[in-house]
Amino acid sequence: MEPLLMPGQNPRTTVWLLFFCQALMNATMVGQVAMGALIGHSLAEDKALATLPMAVQMTAVMVASIPASLLFARFGRRAGFVLGALFSITGSLTFAAGVWQGDFVLYCAGAVPAGLGFGIAQHYRFAAAEVAPPDYRARAIALVMAGGVLSAIFGPELVKHTRELVAPTLFLGTYLVIACLPPIVLLLLTITRLPPAPARPKTRTPLIEIMRRPAFIAAAGSGLVAYGTMNLVMTSTPIEMMLCGFGVDASATVIQIHAFLMFAPGFVTGRLIQRFGIRPIIVAGALLTMGCVAASVAGVSFAHFGIALGLLGIGWNFMFVGATALLATSHTAEERVRAQAANDFIVFGTVACTAFLSGAIHAKAGWAALNLMLLPALALALGLVAWQAMRSRRAATA
């Protein structure tokens, strides 16, 4: 895929602006992860539904994939990202209303626009890939995703310091503050040079043909395993820690460690991909995630939770950045929007399922069983990467 270089702005400057946009949008999600399950647990009569708000939000992320692709294709990246920020504001304010009213249904309703906003924000990494030259593409993708480092630090700290801001309604002030983050994104977008809507090709490659390519299958498979396994464990962590006697600050700190290590490797993941290749980095991520499983089943001390979620974060980063870089090799510039939409629909459809299942599995089967469920999925990802490597070598030989 050729870069869509924009006149008047260095591609690296554009990537850094996208970095800050991604950081602010991710902060809204990191804050939600730190408190969403706790709020759901307090508002829902059936505690198995504690993770339902997160499940609804991830379903909305999935649903956003196809409409977002149509929006980007018709009006360009800027219009899509502006709409995503507006959705995010609406979601935060609806969450606040649900908390204020103590209404679980209203609180779940806020997850819809919040999820749509976050779903659109997932395309910042694709925008980085589009503006970057080929030799800088993997680093650009990783750098934009590394914007989550700021959100990893800021999101949980925001929860800690604002949860009692509007006493006595816990977390109301947090959502009101989070609603102020997307407007900053809107300001940054005014100075960011973004690709226009792509030209419509005279002949369109059928989507099923794109999806049948080995690189697409391995990229989508690795991406869905990376995000699905991470979300399955992360969503239930605050609840498990609460049941083990830890308070909100402790669980927020563990989520902070996890989120930081999800995104901090992004400063070097691109360089590692340049040096070792895409597939070895995906494999390394899968092995690190297996380390998370080992730490989780070994005990329930604060150190066990911190180490497990830290390994989970690094593993996610290696697998997901690698999958995104691999996806960029599976399509042409004209095919990019449809390929990206199909990929994200698959990935976040899986994430939505894991969010729905996380609370129920945790409530019925327990923490250890939930973690052990990651192993078959990781084996599948490793198998797909090996299969794609074999097909690639055969094609090169032919």
Automatic annotation (TrEMBL):
SUPFAM superfamilies the record matches: MFS general substrate transporter (SSF103473)
Residue intervals passing through the bilayer: 52-72, 79-98, 104-124, 136-155, 175-194, 215-234, 254-273, 280-301, 307-329, 341-361, 367-387
Gene3D superfamilies membership: MFS general substrate transporter like domains
UniProt keyword annotations, A-Z: Membrane, Transmembrane, Transmembrane helix
Entry-linked Pfam families: MFS_1
Protein name: MFS transporter
